[in-house]
Amino acid sequence: MAADKSIHVRASERSLVRRDLQGSNEVWDRLKSELEPGLRADESEFQAVSAQDVIRRSQGRSL
Prior knowledge:
It is built from 2 helices and no strands. The chain is mostly helical. It is elongated and about 60 Å long. The protein has helices at 2-40, 51-59.
């Protein structure tokens, strides 16, 4: 009887891990789709900014 419960628990844990990994893969796929245009863009489309520029821009945003 204890072995049956142990098998059920392991199967249940595998299901949870599988679901968690699937969610992680979906998040990763979404992130990749958002980043890909920037990764494929020509270097001429970018502009140099300093750390101070980024800090100033971020201070203007409300969290």
